[in-house]
Fold these 3 entries.
Entry 1:
Amino acid sequence: MDSVDEDVEEKVEKMLNGEGLEVLDFDSTRDHVQAVTLRKNVCYIVSAVIFNTEGKVLMVQEAKRECYGRWYLPAGRMEAGESIHEALRREVKEEAGFECEPITMLLVQERGRKWIRFAFLAEVTGGSLKTPSEADSESVQAQWWDREAPLPLRSWDIACLIDAGLRYRQKPWFPVCHPVNLPCSVVCQRLLLVFSCKERMWLLLAKHTANPETHTRLPVAVSQEGHSVTWAGSRLVQECMRAMSHVLHVNTHGILGVQHDGRVLGQSDGICFNTLVTLEHSEEGAELSSPPLLDSERYTWREVTNQSLKGKILRRIKDRSLLPMHVL
C-alpha cells in the first residue's frame, strides 16, 4: 500500500474544489455500457428557488391539465442540447417571466438514473412577473409567496427545496456548487472513497489497464437501471471486496461536483457525480485496523500522507460540507 502519488493528489484537490475530471474509462458496471439519451432513457429536471428582498419565494401557477391552477416552484425538464444552467434560465423565463442567474445548486434528488432533479438557489436579473394576461401552456401566472398565506400546491415535495434555500441564504454549509461543462456518455459516480483508522487514511484507487503498475485513478462506477445512482458505489465495493462486503457499510456523504455537457444528443447526455464516500464496519463496536482486503487486482489502497489533503477531506466529512443528494 503506497502513499498517494502526486497525480492522484492533484485530482483529489480538483474534486474537493468542485472542478471536473474527464471521464475516460469505467471501473464498475454490470451490463453492457450503453450511452444514455435525454428524454429516452434519462430525464433531468431543473427547479429554481428564488427569493425577493422581502424573503418571499417565487411561485408559478400550473397550466397543465392534471394540476391546473395549483402552485409550484419554476421547474421543468431539460431539453436536448441544453446545459443544466441553460435549462434553469429557460424554465424561469417561460414560467415566471424573469431572467435569472443561478447562485448555487442546493440539492440533487434522484429516483435512479431515469429521473434526476437539480434544485438551484437563484436570483432575478431582469424581466417582470408573469401576469394572467400572459398565460400560456407553460404557466398561468407567477407570484411571490410568503409561505404563510394559503396556497394550493401541486405537491409538498418542494417544501424541502424551499427550506434548503432559506438555510443556505442564512448560513451556507457547503461551497458554491455549479455544474462543470464536461461530457459523459452515461450516468455514473466517481468515488473519492475513504477508509480511515487511528489517524491514518487510505483511498481506493483503480488501476489503469494500460499501465497498472504506475498509473491509478479514482474509480468510476456506472449507474445501473433499476437502482439508485449512488448504489453503484456499493456495487463497486461488493465487486472488489467480496470476502468482507457483508460487514462493510458504504456511506455516501454527498456531492463534490457535477459534470454534464449534453450538446451531442445520444453521445454526451450522461452525468458524472463526483461523490465523497467513506467505508465503515457495519457491526457496532467492530473496527478494522487496516483497509479491507481487496479481492480484485484491478484496485489498490493508497495511503494519504499529505496532511493538508487529509485535513481537507476530514473537514468536509465532519462539517457535512457537501451538496446533498437524496434518493426518493
Note: The first strand starts at residue 44 and ends at 50.
Entry 2:
Amino acid sequence: MGVAFYNLENLFDTINANGKYDLEFSPQGARKWDSDKYWKKVNNLARAISAMATPETPLGPAIIGISEVENRSVVEDLVKAVDNRLAEEGRDPWGLQIVHHESPDLRGIDVALLYNPLYFAVENVTAHTLVIPDNPDFRTRDQLCVTGSLLDKPMSFIVNHWPSRLGGQDESSYLREAAGELSKHIADSLWTVNPDQGVIVMGDLNDDPFDKSCAKSLGAVRDMKKAKPHGFYNPFWRVIDHGVGTLSYRGKWNLFDQIILSGNLVDGEDVGLQYWKCTVFNKRFLRTPSGQYKDTPLRTYSRGEFLNGYSDHFPTEIFLLREVTE
C-alpha cells in the first residue's frame, strides 16, 4: 500500500483570478503562461504520477498528498490526465478522487489529497489555519486533515505546506515550529477520539527531518524503536543522512518533502497496517539531463526559461503492509 506526496510547483491555471499574486501565471504575465504551457505541465505531472506504480502497487499509490495547486479545477485536470495517460499505455484507470480546500495563502496556493476509492473511504475532512499571535496578518496554507478507513483500518492524513524560509532559515524557523506544533495538536485530538488511529503527516515542510520544527515541535524521531505509539517516526531522516534529497538549492540537497508516520504504525499491531519502506521517487526522466544542475529536479522554469519540466521537487512515498509482521 503506497502513500505518496508531491509538490507540483506552481500548478496554476491561466486565469488571473488573484490580482497581482498570480499575474505571472497568465498570458499577460512575466511567464507568458498560456494554455499550451499549462497542458504540457499537467500532462508531465500525470506522467510522473502514473509512473509511481510498482509490482506491489500496480494501481499506484492509494493516497497522494499534493501541494502548490491553485484550485480544485487544476486538480481535476490532473486527475483526468493521469487516467488518460494510463489509457494510452493500455493500463486500467485509477479513478483518483479529490479532497481540496481553499486556503487563505496570499499566493492562492493550496494543498489537496488524491485517493483511490478502492482502498480509502473518506469519513471526515477538517482544515486548520496556522495562527501566529505576534503576526495576526500572517497567511499560509491551511493544514488539511482527512480521516477515513484505509483498507478498513482507521487512518488520518494531515497534508501540509509549511511556511517558507523567506527572510532566512533561522529568522523564519518559528513559523515552521508553530506549524509542527499545530500538526501535533491535530494528531493528539485524533487520538483522544480513537487511541488506535493511524496518523500520517505529509507535505513540503520547508525544513529537513533534523530541523527543530520536525524533530522537536512535531517530535518525529530518527530511530523507529524510539517512536512512541502516539509519537512520530520520520523514515526520511536516514535518507537525507545518506545525501539523498528532494530538492537542491545552491548545490546542497534538502529533503523537505516528508511523510511522517505515527508510532503505532511502526509495529502496526493496534492499527492493522505496518510501515515497510520509503523512497524518494527520483527517476531519470524527472531529472535535469545535463549541465550545471544535472540530476536535480527538472523544473518547469529556470531563470525565466520554460523548460517543459515537472517540478522543482521529487515526489516521496512510503509503503505500508496490511499483514502485520513480527
Note: Helices lie at 35-50, 72-88, 169-193, 212-217, 236-241, 264-267.
Entry 3:
Amino acid sequence: MVLQVIRKLMIILVLLAIVCSAAAPPAAAFRLTVANRYDQSKTFSVLYYDEIVDKWLCVGWYSVPANGWKEYSFANSKDLPYAYAFSTGWHGGDRSENIQMIVTPSKFRYYQDEPFPEGADAKLVTFGKFDIHGGSAQLVFGGDRKTEPVKAAPAGLGDKIVDIAMQMKGKPYVWGGSTPETGFDCSGLTYYVLGQLGINIERTADLQYHRQESISFRDLLPGDLVFFAWHGAEPEHVGIYIGNGKYIDAQNTSGAGPGATGVVTVSSFDNWNKKYFMGGRRFR
C-alpha cells in the first residue's frame, strides 16, 4: 500500500515537472558581454521591444568595473535579433537605426558625469542599436566609437582658437568649471573655447579624445587639442596646442577633485609630458 502511494506521488511529481517545464519562460535570447576600457566603472542600460506584450522593455541598469568585463543573460526575449543600449561610455551602432525616447527622472538615471538637468521634467535620450548574432552580443566601452577622419584646418581658425584660449590665461582652476566666471577644469576649458567658435564637442576629456582620429606630435597645428594619460589607457588631461612646442591648459597644481586649485597657464612639451602625451585631436 505504501509503495503504491509512493509510486502515485512520483508520477504526480513527474507530471508537475513536465507542466512547469512547458510553462517556463523561453530561454535567454542572448548573452551580452560588456568590456570596459575606462579607468572608472561604467553603467549601462539595455532596452528591447517585446512583440508579445507590444512594449519597449528596459531590463535594468548594470555596472562594469574599471578595466574589466562582465557577462549578462537576458531572458523572455526569444529570438531577439537586436537590442539597444544607453551608456556614456558607448556610442555604437548605426545612427540611422538608433532610437530616441523621452524619459523622466523617476524612470531614468544618468551616469555620474551626466546628471539629470536640474528642474527638467523630461529628457530626450538616445539608445544605440547593437546586433545579436548566434544568441550573443558584445559592447565595448572606450574602444568602439566610430572616429571621424582628420580634417585640414581652415585658414585662421586654429589661430582664433588659440586667441580665445590665451584670453583665459590666469583664470582659476575649478573642478567641473567651464566658464570664465566660474573658472575651468581641463576639459571645461577646451569645451568653452571651441564652443565660442560654434564647435560643439563633448564635455569630458575621454569623450573628446575618442571623437576624432589621432594626430601625432609632429603633425600638431595651433588650435589642436592635446591629451595626456599618466595611469592608464584613457586620457586624464587635455590642453590646447598654441604652437612652438607649447600648449595652454587648466592645471590643478594642488589637490584633486572638487577641492583642487590651480590656474589656466601655458606649458611646454618637455621630456616628462612628452612621455605621457597620447595624441592630438582636430575639431575643425
Note: The first helix runs from residue 2 to 23.
